[in-house]
Design goal:
The chain has 205 residues and is mostly helical. The protein is built from eight helices and no strands. The chain is flat, with a radius of gyration of 20 Å.
Length: 205
Protein backbone atom coordinates (compact mmCIF):
# COMPACT_ATOMS: atom_id res chain seq x y z
CA UNK A 1 0.00 0.00 0.00
CA UNK A 2 2.85 2.35 0.88
CA UNK A 3 4.56 1.65 -2.47
CA UNK A 4 1.30 2.25 -4.32
CA UNK A 5 0.83 5.58 -2.52
CA UNK A 6 4.39 6.62 -3.37
CA UNK A 7 3.87 5.74 -7.04
CA UNK A 8 0.67 7.76 -7.18
CA UNK A 9 2.53 10.74 -5.71
CA UNK A 10 5.26 10.38 -8.33
CA UNK A 11 2.66 10.21 -11.10
CA UNK A 12 0.93 13.33 -9.80
CA UNK A 13 4.23 15.16 -9.47
CA UNK A 14 5.23 14.15 -13.01
CA UNK A 15 2.04 15.66 -14.42
CA UNK A 16 2.48 18.88 -12.46
CA UNK A 17 6.16 19.14 -13.39
CA UNK A 18 5.30 18.49 -17.04
CA UNK A 19 2.76 21.32 -17.09
CA UNK A 20 5.03 23.79 -15.27
CA UNK A 21 8.06 22.86 -17.37
CA UNK A 22 6.11 23.05 -20.63
CA UNK A 23 4.70 26.48 -19.77
CA UNK A 24 8.16 27.82 -18.85
CA UNK A 25 9.87 26.39 -21.93
CA UNK A 26 6.93 27.46 -24.11
CA UNK A 27 7.32 31.02 -22.82
CA UNK A 28 11.01 31.01 -23.77
CA UNK A 29 10.20 29.65 -27.24
CA UNK A 30 7.50 32.24 -27.93
CA UNK A 31 9.80 35.08 -26.84
CA UNK A 32 12.47 33.69 -29.15
CA UNK A 33 10.01 33.54 -32.05
CA UNK A 34 8.65 37.05 -31.50
CA UNK A 35 11.66 39.04 -30.35
CA UNK A 36 14.77 37.00 -31.15
CA UNK A 37 17.16 37.64 -34.04
CA UNK A 38 16.36 35.94 -37.33
CA UNK A 39 18.57 32.91 -36.68
CA UNK A 40 16.95 32.31 -33.29
CA UNK A 41 13.46 32.72 -34.76
CA UNK A 42 14.27 30.13 -37.42
CA UNK A 43 15.55 27.66 -34.82
CA UNK A 44 12.46 28.15 -32.67
CA UNK A 45 10.21 27.73 -35.72
CA UNK A 46 12.00 24.52 -36.74
CA UNK A 47 11.71 23.16 -33.20
CA UNK A 48 7.98 23.82 -33.00
CA UNK A 49 7.40 22.40 -36.47
CA UNK A 50 9.32 19.23 -35.60
CA UNK A 51 7.47 18.63 -32.35
CA UNK A 52 4.11 19.19 -34.03
CA UNK A 53 5.01 16.75 -36.82
CA UNK A 54 5.86 13.67 -34.73
CA UNK A 55 3.71 11.69 -32.27
CA UNK A 56 4.37 12.00 -28.55
CA UNK A 57 5.07 8.29 -28.15
CA UNK A 58 7.97 8.61 -30.63
CA UNK A 59 9.52 11.44 -28.59
CA UNK A 60 9.28 9.26 -25.47
CA UNK A 61 11.03 6.44 -27.34
CA UNK A 62 13.76 8.81 -28.48
CA UNK A 63 14.59 9.87 -24.96
CA UNK A 64 14.34 6.41 -23.47
CA UNK A 65 16.37 4.54 -26.09
CA UNK A 66 18.49 7.03 -28.07
CA UNK A 67 19.60 9.62 -25.51
CA UNK A 68 21.40 7.00 -23.33
CA UNK A 69 23.40 6.01 -26.43
CA UNK A 70 24.50 9.64 -26.85
CA UNK A 71 25.36 10.44 -23.22
CA UNK A 72 26.61 6.97 -22.35
CA UNK A 73 24.31 6.24 -19.43
CA UNK A 74 20.59 5.52 -18.95
CA UNK A 75 18.22 8.42 -18.37
CA UNK A 76 15.60 6.39 -16.52
CA UNK A 77 11.90 5.88 -17.11
CA UNK A 78 10.66 8.82 -15.07
CA UNK A 79 13.04 11.42 -16.50
CA UNK A 80 12.63 10.09 -20.05
CA UNK A 81 8.87 10.61 -19.87
CA UNK A 82 9.13 13.92 -18.00
CA UNK A 83 11.63 15.49 -20.41
CA UNK A 84 9.77 14.17 -23.45
CA UNK A 85 6.49 15.61 -22.20
CA UNK A 86 8.02 19.01 -21.42
CA UNK A 87 9.77 19.33 -24.78
CA UNK A 88 6.77 18.07 -26.75
CA UNK A 89 4.03 20.04 -24.99
CA UNK A 90 6.12 23.23 -24.87
CA UNK A 91 5.78 23.50 -28.64
CA UNK A 92 1.99 23.52 -28.38
CA UNK A 93 1.95 25.90 -25.41
CA UNK A 94 4.24 28.30 -27.28
CA UNK A 95 1.93 28.40 -30.30
CA UNK A 96 -1.04 29.15 -28.06
CA UNK A 97 0.89 31.94 -26.35
CA UNK A 98 2.08 33.35 -29.66
CA UNK A 99 -1.46 33.45 -31.00
CA UNK A 100 -2.66 35.18 -27.85
CA UNK A 101 0.05 37.81 -27.97
CA UNK A 102 -0.41 38.50 -31.68
CA UNK A 103 -4.16 38.83 -31.21
CA UNK A 104 -3.54 42.15 -29.42
CA UNK A 105 -3.46 44.97 -31.92
CA UNK A 106 0.03 46.37 -32.49
CA UNK A 107 -1.36 49.86 -32.26
CA UNK A 108 -1.95 49.37 -28.55
CA UNK A 109 1.72 48.67 -27.92
CA UNK A 110 2.68 51.61 -30.13
CA UNK A 111 0.32 53.84 -28.14
CA UNK A 112 1.89 52.63 -24.89
CA UNK A 113 5.38 53.43 -26.19
CA UNK A 114 4.25 56.89 -27.25
CA UNK A 115 3.24 57.64 -23.65
CA UNK A 116 6.78 57.04 -22.46
CA UNK A 117 6.56 53.39 -21.43
CA UNK A 118 9.46 51.14 -22.33
CA UNK A 119 8.96 48.08 -24.53
CA UNK A 120 9.07 45.82 -21.47
CA UNK A 121 6.55 47.95 -19.60
CA UNK A 122 4.22 48.14 -22.59
CA UNK A 123 4.40 44.41 -23.03
CA UNK A 124 3.90 43.77 -19.31
CA UNK A 125 1.04 46.20 -18.65
CA UNK A 126 -0.75 46.39 -22.01
CA UNK A 127 -0.14 43.27 -24.10
CA UNK A 128 0.18 40.49 -21.53
CA UNK A 129 -3.03 41.14 -19.53
CA UNK A 130 -5.12 41.06 -22.72
CA UNK A 131 -3.32 38.09 -24.27
CA UNK A 132 -3.48 36.01 -21.09
CA UNK A 133 -7.22 36.57 -20.90
CA UNK A 134 -7.61 35.36 -24.48
CA UNK A 135 -5.32 32.34 -24.33
CA UNK A 136 -6.17 31.06 -20.82
CA UNK A 137 -9.05 28.80 -22.01
CA UNK A 138 -6.85 27.24 -24.70
CA UNK A 139 -3.98 26.73 -22.25
CA UNK A 140 -6.34 24.96 -19.85
CA UNK A 141 -7.56 22.78 -22.70
CA UNK A 142 -3.95 21.89 -23.50
CA UNK A 143 -3.47 20.91 -19.85
CA UNK A 144 -6.39 18.50 -20.22
CA UNK A 145 -4.74 16.97 -23.28
CA UNK A 146 -1.42 16.67 -21.43
CA UNK A 147 -3.15 14.90 -18.54
CA UNK A 148 -4.72 12.41 -20.95
CA UNK A 149 -1.45 11.93 -22.84
CA UNK A 150 0.31 10.67 -19.72
CA UNK A 151 -1.14 7.25 -20.51
CA UNK A 152 1.56 6.82 -23.19
CA UNK A 153 4.09 6.39 -20.37
CA UNK A 154 3.32 2.67 -20.50
CA UNK A 155 5.56 2.31 -23.59
CA UNK A 156 8.64 2.58 -21.36
CA UNK A 157 7.06 0.53 -18.55
CA UNK A 158 6.49 3.58 -16.36
CA UNK A 159 3.24 3.18 -14.49
CA UNK A 160 0.72 5.91 -14.96
CA UNK A 161 -2.81 5.88 -13.54
CA UNK A 162 -4.30 3.88 -16.42
CA UNK A 163 -1.49 1.32 -16.40
CA UNK A 164 -1.89 0.81 -12.65
CA UNK A 165 -5.62 0.36 -13.16
CA UNK A 166 -4.96 -2.27 -15.82
CA UNK A 167 -2.62 -4.19 -13.50
CA UNK A 168 -5.17 -4.19 -10.69
CA UNK A 169 -7.92 -5.23 -13.10
CA UNK A 170 -5.89 -8.23 -14.23
CA UNK A 171 -4.81 -9.29 -10.74
CA UNK A 172 -8.31 -8.95 -9.29
CA UNK A 173 -10.05 -10.24 -12.44
CA UNK A 174 -12.48 -7.31 -12.27
CA UNK A 175 -11.78 -5.42 -15.51
CA UNK A 176 -15.24 -3.90 -15.92
CA UNK A 177 -15.25 -2.30 -12.46
CA UNK A 178 -11.65 -1.08 -12.62
CA UNK A 179 -11.84 0.39 -16.13
CA UNK A 180 -15.14 2.03 -15.28
CA UNK A 181 -13.48 3.54 -12.21
CA UNK A 182 -10.59 4.81 -14.37
CA UNK A 183 -13.04 6.34 -16.85
CA UNK A 184 -14.90 8.11 -14.02
CA UNK A 185 -11.65 9.53 -12.62
CA UNK A 186 -10.49 10.79 -16.03
CA UNK A 187 -13.96 12.20 -16.69
CA UNK A 188 -14.10 14.00 -13.34
CA UNK A 189 -10.68 15.60 -13.78
CA UNK A 190 -11.22 16.57 -17.42
CA UNK A 191 -14.69 17.96 -16.72
CA UNK A 192 -13.22 20.06 -13.92
CA UNK A 193 -10.70 21.56 -16.34
CA UNK A 194 -13.44 21.98 -18.95
CA UNK A 195 -15.54 23.86 -16.41
CA UNK A 196 -12.61 26.20 -15.79
CA UNK A 197 -12.26 26.74 -19.54
CA UNK A 198 -15.96 27.51 -19.94
CA UNK A 199 -16.02 29.80 -16.92
CA UNK A 200 -13.02 31.74 -18.25
CA UNK A 201 -14.67 32.03 -21.68
CA UNK A 202 -17.97 33.15 -20.16
CA UNK A 203 -16.25 35.66 -17.86
CA UNK A 204 -14.32 37.13 -20.79
CA UNK A 205 -17.44 37.48 -22.92
Amino acid sequence: MHQSTQKQKVQGNSRLLSIVGAVILGSVIVLARLFGPRSVRLIAFAYVSLCRSVPLVLVVFWFYFLVPLVIGRPVGQFFSVLIAFILFEAAYFSETMRAGIQSVARGQLAAALSTGLTLRQGFQYIVLPQSISKMAPILLTQCIILFQDTSVAYVVALRDFLTSTSIVAQSETRPVEMYTFAAVVYLAICLSFSFLVESRTWHRS
